[in-house]
Amino acid sequence: MTDPGRPAMADSAALGPDAAGARFPARAVHGLRATYIKQRGCPSYFAYVVFSAEPRHAAEPGVEARADTGIAVLPHADLWAPEYLDAFRRGFAEALEEDHPELWPDVLLVVTEMRIHEVDSNEPAFRLAGKSALRVLLARMAEEPDFG
């Protein structure tokens, strides 16, 4: 849910990137890692994602996610679940809308590695990893001088 005093992601489409703020991210950032792990008690959660965040160069704001063609799904490929990728995207988009509505999201999340636990991985874990992914991206951008 957004703050009533701030424009929602849908509202920023009407404003465009100049009025709503700069496109986010301005350039690609590679080698990011987001996790959400809670394995005590029931239910347990496990999500581990290595990804890049790239500009989409789209006319409308938004967040997309895709699996890289050579994605590594560990411990083995038959655990691949496309709904985990979508949950990761949704979590990232929710965090952007809730915590940074001033940004004009133009993000393509390219997932290069996904670790899945046969029992403890689930959509909520990957949604929370997506929320964590935004914090990881912002921290990396703060460390790099050319983002300033």
Helices and strands in order, then pairings?
Elements: H1 9-20, E1 23-24, E2 29-38, E3 45-55, E4 62-74, H2 82-99, E5 104-115, H3 123-143
Helix pairs in contact: 2-3
Gap from first CA to last CA: 29 Å
Radius of gyration: 16 Å
SSE string: HEEEEHEH
The total number of structural domains is: 1
Number of helices: 3
The overall pLDDT, averaged over residues, is 87
Please state the second-level CATH architecture: 2-Layer Sandwich
Which outline best applies? globular
Helix content: 25-40%
How many runs of DSSP E, i.e. beta strands?
5
Structural class: alpha/beta
Beta-strand share of residues: 25-35%
CATH topology: Ribosomal Protein S5, domain 2
**Largest sheet descriptor:** 5 strands, mixed
Low-confidence stretches are 1-15
Q: Give the class-level CATH name.
A: Alpha Beta
Give an account of the 3D structure:
- It is a single chain.
- β4, α2 and β5 form a beta-alpha-beta unit.
- By secondary structure, the protein is an alpha/beta fold.
- The two termini are 29 Å apart.
- It has one domain (23-113, 123-147): Ribosomal Protein S5, domain 2, CATH 3.30.230.
- Helices cover 34% and strands 32% of the residues.
- Mean pLDDT is 87; it is low at 1-15.
- α2 crosses α3 (123-143).
List keywords for this structure.
34% helix, alpha/beta, five-stranded mixed beta sheet, 3 helices, 148 residues, Ribosomal Protein S5, domain 2, disordered N terminus
